[in-house]
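Section 3.1: Structural characterization of target chains.
Under the original work plan, the team committed to producing a structural model for every single-chain target entering the pipeline before any wet-lab resources were allocated. The record below documents one such target. The sequence was received from the expression subgroup and is listed exactly as submitted; it comprises 388 residues.
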Amino acid sequence: MNVLFLTHSFPQGEGDAAGSFILRLAVALRDEEVNVRVVAPAGAGLPSAEVLEGILVERFRYAPRRFERLAYTGNMAGDVASSWTAKLALVGFLGSDFVHAVRARRNFEPQIIHAHWWFPSGVVGTWVHGLSHLPLVTTLHGTDVRLARSVGVAKPLFAHVLKHSAAVTTVSRWLKDEAQALVPSVRPVVAPMPVSTDLFEPGDSRDGKRLLFVGRLNAQKGADHLLHALAEMKTPASLDIVGDGPDREDLVRLSRELGLGARVSWHGQLAQTELPELYRQAAAVVVPSVDEGLGLTAVEALLCETPVVAFDSGGLRDVIQHEKTGLLVRPGDRVSLAKTLDDLLSRDGYGAQLGKAGRLYALSTFAPESAARRYAEIYRQVLGGNAS
C-alpha cells in the first residue's frame, strides 16, 4: 500500500525535533507493508528532494526565498493573522502544495492521502481528493483545533475538511471531544503519534534537585507559570529550559525579576538527539501547558523514567495518570505546582516509582510499532469502506 503524507512540519534533517513523530510513523509503517512519501514545504538550505531514514521527502517552494517564513516556525497562524506578506505567502503555499501533491500522486500512485493537521494540509488534501477521488485521512494534532475554535472563518473550513475525510484521527481523547463539539456529525478515532523508543531510554545520572522544561516559549506552553512556581518552592531547585519562541525575552526578564538568576539555564532549541541526556539528568519534567493536543514531551520524559508534573489539561490526561505515571495539578495554579514539586523532590524513591510505571505505559502506548499498527488498520478500513 502506498500512502502520501501532506504536512507543513517535518524534520529538516537528522535529529530535528519538528514533526519528528511524522517521520517516526512513516518509518514504522514499512513493517506494516505501507510505503510513505512526504510532501512538505521548502526551507532555508533544504534540497527540493531528499531521503530521510529511507523516506522520500519532496519540498515545495511557495514564495521568494526571503518570504518563505511560514513553515518551521511554529507560528504560522499568528504570522498570517498579523502580516499581509504572510497572507500572500499562504496563497502561494496552498497553490504550490496542491501542485506538488498532484505531481506526487501521479508519480507515486498512492491509495490514500494522509494530511497532518487540517490546515493547511487537510485543505489541500480535500482538493487532491476532489481531483483524484483518493480517500483522505486527516489527523488533528492540537494547534489546528485551537485554530478552528479561535478564528471565526476557520470553523466552516474545518468542518468542510473533516466531512470530506474518509477517516479523522486525533492524537488524544481530549482532541476527539473537541473536534466532535465543533463538528458533531464526525466521529474521530484516537490514534497517537509515535515516539522514538530507541532514542529515549533510562539512565543513571539523575540530579535530585534539577527540573526540566522542554517546549516552545509562548503563552500556551506556560513556562511563566513554572518560573513563578520555582520562585515559590522551598527546595532550592535548578531549572533547565529548552526551546525558543516569541516570549523568550519576556521570560528571561521575568526570571531575573523573580530573583532566580543562575538557577535557570536557557538552552535554546536543541536537536532531538541532545534531549535524552537532559531528561535522564532531571528529577522531574514539568509540562505547565494548557489545552495541549497530547504532550509528546511528557511521553519522551516517561520513556527516560523521568517523572512528569503537568497541568491537568487537554491531551496530557492521556499521558499522565495522576499518582501512577506522574502528577497532575490544576491548570494555572502556581502555588499548587510549587507544593507538588517540593513534595516530589522531598520523597525518596517516589519519583523513581512514577518514572518506572510511566515508561511501561509509554512503551505500550506510544511505541512506533504500536502507532504503525493502528494507522495501518485505519488505512485498510478506509480502503475496505471505499471498495464497498
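The two ends are 18 Å apart (CA to CA).
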